[in-house]
Every structure is written in structure tokens, then in C-alpha cells.
């Protein structure tokens, strides 16, 4: 059953992927902030538990969502705009919108210096 749902997700995101890269520019879902230029992220299927978006900061119970589809960005300077949360654990930081601070939209691994942006947490649009 797990495999089937993974395949479904891949089909859903296929129109966003060209040669394993992001076909479109990546934007914040809540504001006009441009996050990542097209073709800068590499599609990667990896399991990561990401907390739900925009939880209250003082909320103790952090509910997570298992997401499997990410844009892997090898260098943080490839982003147009990105913000980082405080370090969560062992070098992991969450990615947030640099302008409206909504997030997490992905995570950053300080050990590998690679960032992962969840496809389902951002907006994809043609270059304007
Ligand atoms: Zn934003």
C-alpha cells in the first residue's frame, strides 16, 4: 500500500519536473516572495517528517507530516529568498519564507549543506 501511494504522488508532481529539475519558479504560497529559480532544485524522493505549516510558536505538541517529494538544493546561495529556523536537532534547520516567515517549507542539513524544499509546501509558476 505504501508503494502505491508513493507512485500516486510522483504522478501528481510529474508536470512540475523536467529532467529531474524544477520546471517552474518556486514561490511562497502565502506571499509573492520568489524562493527558487527554475531548474535549481533536483527532484528527490526522500522521507522526512516535517511539522505542519504555521503552527503557533508556543504549541507544545508538534504534529508532523511525512512528506516524500522534495527539491534538493545543493547550495543555499542558489535560493532567491529563503529563511532558516533555529537549529532543531543535529544540524537540521527548517526552511521558512524569508518575507512572511511561513513554514516550514522544507529543511536544511548543516552537515551536507543541502536544502530540501517540499513540493507540496510551495507554489510553482512560470517565470514572470
Ligand atoms: Zn512568504
From TrEMBL:
It comes from the Eukaryota. Coiled coil: none annotated. GO terms for cellular component: cytosol; membrane. One of its GO terms (biological process) is post-Golgi vesicle-mediated transport. Keywords: Guanine-nucleotide releasing factor, Protein transport, Transport. It comes from Aphis gossypii (Cotton aphid). PANTHER family: GUANINE NUCLEOTIDE EXCHANGE FACTOR MSS4. The keyword Protein transport applies. Transmembrane segments: none annotated. Pfam families: Mss4. This is Guanine nucleotide exchange factor MSS4. One of its GO terms (molecular function) is guanyl-nucleotide exchange factor activity.
Amino acid at each position: 500500500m505504501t508503494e502505491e501511494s508513493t507512485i500516486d504522488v510522483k504522478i501528481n508532481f510529474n508536470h512540475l519536473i523536467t529532467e529531474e529539475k524544477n520546471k517552474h519558479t518556486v514561490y511562497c504560497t502565502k506571499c509573492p516572495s520568489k524562493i527558487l529559480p527554475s531548474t535549481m532544485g533536483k527532484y528527490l524522493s526522500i522521507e522526512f517528517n516535517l511539522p505542519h505549516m504555521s503552527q503557533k510558536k508556543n504549541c507544545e505538541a508538534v504534529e508532523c507530516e511525512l512528506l516524500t517529494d522534495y527539491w534538493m538544493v545543493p547550495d543555499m546561495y542558489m535560493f532567491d529568498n529563503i529563511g532558516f529556523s533555529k537549529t532543531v536537532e543535529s544540524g537540521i534547520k527548517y526552511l521558512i519564507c524569508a518575507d512572511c516567515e511561513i513554514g516550514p517549507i522544507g529543511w536544511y542539513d548543516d552537515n551536507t549543506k543541502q536544502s530540501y524544499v517540499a513540493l507540496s509546501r510551495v507554489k510553482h509558476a512560470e517565470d514572470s
